[in-house]
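Figure caption, in words: inputs first, then the predicted bound structure.
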Amino acid sequence: MADIWSEALQGLEPRLDKQTFDMWLRPIRLASIEDDRLRLHAPNRFLKEWFETHYLALVLDEIEGRQGRRFGVELEIVEPAEPAKAPAASSTETSIAQSPAAQPTVTLRRGPEAPTGLHPRYRFDSFIKGASNELAASAAMAASDAPGTRFNPLFIYGGVGLGKTHLLHGIGHELHRKDPSLRIVYLSAEHFMNEFVTAVRNNQFDEFRARYRKDCDCLLIDDIQFIAGRDRTMDEFFHVFNALYEAGKQIVVTSDRVPADMPGMEARLTSRLNWGLVADVQPPDLETRIAIVQAKAERDGMELPAEVCLTIAELVRSNVRELEGALLRVTAFAQLRGVAIDKAFVESVLGKRRVDKTPITIEAVQKAVAGYYSVRISDLKGKRRHRGISRPRMVAMYLCRQLTDSSFPEIGMRFGGKDHSTVINACKRIAALQEDDEELRGAVESLRGQLAS
Ligand SMILES: Nc1ncnc2c1ncn2[C@@H]1O[C@H](COP(=O)(O)OP(=O)(O)OP(=O)(O)O)[C@@H](O)[C@H]1O
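Bound structure (adenosine-5'-triphosphate present):
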């Protein structure tokens, strides 16, 4: 009976990319054939769902072509009998008949009450899945179902504001929910470097090493591209990676680009980052953008007419952060002016505002921000870290990114030759701070209005 299955797979193997075949088809097993039904086993929920949606029809067509009849299918999740590599949390999939070997083999020390640094809103249930992020989102969920096993490391990459950090935090929350004893460490690569430098300077290397190599069951690192070219940090991260990986601990990494495309990143690190699954997030399509606008409005207790959601989604295409910003702008303006939100209003706030106007330049942004905060343009381009300077500098970088077509490296260059990751961090920081800081939100809106007019 297994021949039906293996013959079909053999027929398909040369027609599919090797990685695709090994990842999605090979792990599916034929358990039995009853009448005209194939009973198949998938090792986990993620593989089951992915196989069902993407490859099942293909395999059934192949079988039909060979056998001359169409089979039905029952696809169940059955974990492989051999012990999982990771001693971490087992899958909570209730339908799985767990073999004793699949249970955790060591008792983990209790972790903190809740992993620190995780944004309370960045959870899977508030993440809208669409074609543009499907692989990354499903893989993130799979990694939190069975950490340290199949998708380890999980590498999520993509452009700015597309949900990488949201997914990373989602994994942390989900792992913690399923097993509060897990020690989950989340931090940005920049933070990792700063801690490392401080540890070396203060002779606290043993503590640093213990924190990341031993007392950690899951490492979530944001913006790994930051450490490219920083030799000692890369070397340290390499050892952290090895220690955790060998212990079967889950590692999830995000970046703005694929591992192979990071100039200055050591080859031994790039290759390790490629060991597991590399999944991208792309700018959302129209349907996903509409769903995101609806969900965000609902979360904020607003009911927006479908036409309004559609108009916002049509006008803002680049990324989700900008979509959120646009929604915030529309609702804030409507509140200020005390008017109802309809299509024409949205267009007046977002849409045609830039048409027929000269494009906003980086210089114009720097000038407006310097004037607003009463600082010198040379300070914005300089290195001083005093809050009175660094805050306006970050706001200026943020507005340059929002209002001009300039890339991160280009903005960095025009701010006194700063690294693109500094610009990325500034943009993120200002976007996040605006959520709670009304004064900052007011400043950004006022500058935006000034520059747009
Ligand atoms: N699919 C989605 N569903 C719901 N919200 C989303 C989705 N994608 C992104 N967001 C939201 O958009 C905002 C930006 O997302 P996030 O910070 O995760 O982006 P990122 O890819 O990490 O970008 P960056 O590289 O700039 O850090 C967040 O508020 C996040 O909640």
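Residues 320-337 form the longest helix (18 residues).
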